[in-house]
Specification:
The protein has about 400 residues and is mostly beta strands. It is about 0% helix and about 55% strand. The strands form six sheets. Strands 3, 4, 5, 6, 7, 8, 23, 24, 25, 26 and 27 form an eleven-stranded antiparallel sheet that branches. It contains one helix and 27 strands. It folds into two domains: about 1-125 and about 305-385, no CATH class; about 130-295, Immunoglobulins (Immunoglobulin-like, Sandwich), CATH 2.60.40.10. The radius of gyration is 35 Å and the shape is rod-shaped. It starts with 20 loop residues before the first strand and ends with a strand.
Length: about 400
């Protein structure tokens, strides 16, 4: 009898507002509380075999509960299982998912609106597909000195000690990228502002060559789409144009600065040139490149009125949806509601309802969707708990 598995305590179930129209469907009013003990049962076929489960008979128990899933959706659950083990066979559960995440401790629209439709459809893994494009940046020192240590700071609070790290930015705008190179106890640092805005064209770099006999440096801007190019050669001389040259009277290490402008865009790039008698002096010059990477992410989401049926048989687990994120399953009918009545509180002191319904659908092995079984019944009465 039902007194063996749900507390036999009459309670006052407060009815919510009466009929409203929603998308052409009438909202269901819950009837007055039921007197007596309804029989919770499943009588039908699963996989072509007759299945007769009744709470209180042959060690079967009607467990009720609710929880938030990984999308913060409330799942209201009723399970036929052994009275000594909630996860043991026989196991047959009916799980009804709220359509919207709730920010409080109750259903997003209340229990009455939750049952406004008589049909609950399948849970779909691919209801939301998001195509993402992200730009990755590769940073590379110009000189690879064997045994040198490279310390990168990407300007967004992240760091790397790789030789040529790949970095993804979660923010937009200008980031100051710094490389500190250390070799034989000698260190050098260089910071370069990089516009990491997605697909930005406001980026200009340059290359240079050195004529050590004449102490002359030749520079060339990479990006020729800017309107103006201004050079500061670090020795008091300046220049203009995509190409330029400078002669140095004194030995030393000089920092060359290129400022490229067009419209409201200003891009700055630095490189150091070694004009000393030490050709192996440590310099932290580096360049960067970028490329677009595309990927698709799937967010598990349900359509309004979704139901998940789970069945355990011979150690296998079957569900009413395929474990396939490439397939939209949201339009598949799973459970048809015949009636809903308020019922007693369960052993966790959670409010419950007693629901009659019918099913005629397919269950799929969670590890092999090619393994499927049918489930049919027009004689189901299940209890589910809900937050109130």
């Amino acid at each position: 009898m039902e007194t063996n598995f749900l507390k036999n305590r009459t309670f006052l179930f407060i009815l919510l507002q009466s009929v409203i129209l929603f998308a052409g469907c009438s909202k269901k009013d819950l009837p007055a509380p039921v007197n007596g003990n309804p029989v919770f049962k499943f009588n039908g076929t699963i996989g072509g075999e007759s299945v007769d489960l009744q709470a209180g008979i042959n060690g079967v128990y009607m467990y009720t509960d609710y929880y938030r899933d990984n999308q913060s959706l409330y799942s209201l659950k009723g399970t036929f299982a052994k009275d000594t083990c909630v996860t043991c066979e026989p196991y047959l559960s009916f799980e009804f998912k709220d359509a919207e995440a709730s920010i409080n401790s109750s259903l997003s629209s209340g229990i009455q609106t939750f049952f406004r439709d008589s049909i609950f459809n399948s849970y779909s893994l691919d209801s939301v597909q998001i195509a993402n494009t992200i730009e990755s940046f590769q940073f590379t020192p110009i000189v690879n000195q064997q045994g040198a240590v490279y310390n990168w700071s990407f300007g967004d609070g992240s760091f790397s000690q790789q030789f040529n790290p790949l970095h993804l930015y979660s923010t937009q705008g200008i980031q100051s990228v710094k490389l500190k190179s250390t070799y034989n106890g000698v260190s050098d640092s260089l910071s370069i502002p990089v516009d990491v805005t997605m697909l930005s064209t406001c980026r200009s770099q340059f290359i240079f060559t050195v004529d050590t006999f004449l102490n002359k440096v030749y520079v060339q801007a990479d990006n020729v789409s800017f309107a103006n190019y201004s050079w500061d050669f670090g020795n008091g001389t300046i220049g203009q144009g995509i190409y330029d040259t400078a002669t140095y009277a004194l030995p030393g290490i000089y920092t060359i600065k290129l400022t490229s402008t067009i419209g409201g865009c200003t891009s700055t790039f630095f490189q150091k040139v070694n004009l000393t008698n030490n050709p192996s002096a440590v310099l932290s010059n580096f360049r960067y490149s970028s490329e677009l990477n595309s990927y698709t992410s799937f967010i598990q989401r349900i359509n309004r009125g979704a139901c998940v049926i789970t069945y355990h048989k011979n150690g296998k687990v079957y569900k009413s949806y395929k474990n396939d994120s490439q397939q939209d399953q949201s339009g598949k009918e799973i459970f048809r509601v015949i009636s809903v009545n308020p019922y007693d509180y369960n052993y966790k002191n959670q409010a419950t309802v007693s629901m009659k319904g019918e099913v005629n659908t397919t269950l799929y092995n969670v590890t092999n969707s090619a393994d499927s079984i049918s489930i049919k019944s027009n004689s189901i009465q299940v209890a589910i708990a809900y937050p109130n």
